[in-house]
Design a protein that fits this description.
Elements: E1 8-11, E2 15-18, E3 20-23, H1 36-49, E4 53-55, H2 64-72, E5 82-87, E6 89-93, E7 112-116, H3 120-134, E8 139-145, H4 151-167, E9 171-178, H5 182-190, E10 195-199, H6 213-220, E11 223-227, E12 245-246, E13 249-250, H7 253-268, H8 273-282, E14 287-293, H9 297-308, H10 313-321
Helix pairs in contact: 1-2, 1-9, 3-4, 5-6, 8-9
Length: 332
């Protein structure tokens, strides 16, 4: 089978990632159950569509996402794909809660529990466990995962441990994945990071990352992977539902109105809002990929369609002129 070539961009010149990355949180039964077959079909559809970058984490379904992703990619030549996972939450056996359901949004039994750990030993143990669950001998990119309340330990122990593993050739790139831009910017200033996964802070609705992280990343040659491009769903549909969510909570009336204005301008240029949401962050020269959550083969198809749909420059000009979303190509 000939796999189509989806455009790629590079992290530090040696880790190529496709412009659309496969976000595997939903393979961990995020919010609802997904079957093994659905998960495998989604991953295989992504490969058939030319996606080579796959992102997961122990947090997603208490290891279920990593296991499913590993099984689905088992027959894929390892050199053809890039896998990223995350550290900071160790999974520890919890027989006392095995009859309960996970309380952090994943429909899985709570037979293990998450323990925050950004120590050097915790980082190494987490990577070893992820290698086992993924069924692979190496991980390309490792991100600190949501170290918001653990900045001191992450800076003092976790990042140096990851940088040491990079120097040994165990991993290829070191990064941080967060829903804020200020702390990753401080990490870049303190350590030689390769990449930041920025969730929800470089979108049509929220450009917070432009104030601190993005200028610094551009100066230091640090790649940025955009996640949360739909801002928890508010930008994922052409019509804005009154019960839509923004940043994991019900959207305010002000944010709903802003999203409807964005959608209206997109329609005036014959563009659907989700396509503009996917392509917006990729216009910044520091951004190498937009990681999009995909549960099914249909999600893969729609994600590729949204990345490849033609968007006239006039749309970006108008969004900038209206003060809704600055043109990311200006001054960069």
């Amino acid at each position: 089978m000939t796999i189509p070539a989806l455009p790629s961009r590079s992290i530090r010149g040696n880790v190529p990632v496709t412009e659309v990355g496969f976000g595997a949180a939903q393979l961990g039964n995020l919010n609802r159950t997904t079957t093994d077959d659905e998960s495998t079909s989604a991953v295989h559809a992504a490969r058939a569509a030319g996606i080579t970058y796959f992102d997961t984490a122990p947090h997603y379904g208490l290891g279920l996402s990593e296991r499913r992703l590993g099984r689905a990619l088992a027959e894929t030549p390892r050199e053809e794909i890039i896998i990223s996972t995350k550290v900071g939450r160790l999974l520890v056996d919890s027989p006392d809660t095995a009859d309960l359901q996970d309380g952090e949004g994943f429909v899985v039994p709570a037979s293990v529990r998450r323990e925050w750990d950004f120590s050097a030993d915790g980082v190494k143990r987490s990577i070893e466990d992820s290698l086992t669950r993924l069924g692979t001998d190496r991980i390309d990119i490792v991100y600190l995962h949501d170290p918001d309340d653990h900045e001191e330990q992450a800076t003092r122990e976790a990042l140096p441990a990851l940088l040491d593993l990079r120097a040994q050739g165990v991993i290829r790139a070191v990064g941080a994945g967060m829903n804020q831009s200020a702390m990753p910017a401080r990490f870049i200033e303190a350590h030689d990071l390769d990449v930041v996964m920025l969730a929800g802070r470089l979108t049509l609705l929220d450009q917070t990352g432009l104030t601190d992280l993005m200028p610094l990343a551009a100066r230091r040659g640090v790649a940025v992977v955009a996640a949360g491009v739909y801002n928890s769903g508010l930008l994922s549909s052409t019509e804005i539902s009154p019960d839509a969510h923004f940043d994991y909570a019900p959207a305010s009336s002000e944010m709903l109105a802003r999203a409807r204005r964005l959608a209206a301008i997109c329609r005036s240029h014959s563009v659907d809002l989700p396509s503009a949401a996917v392509q917006y962050s990729l216009r910044h020269p520091a951004v190498v990929s937009a990681v999009i959550g995909m549960r099914t083969a249909a999600h893969v198809e729609s994600s590729i369609d949204r990345r490849t749909t033609d968007i006239p420059d006039e749309l970006w000009v108008e969004l900038d002129a209206e003060g809704l979303a600055p043109d990311l190509t200006k001054g960069n």
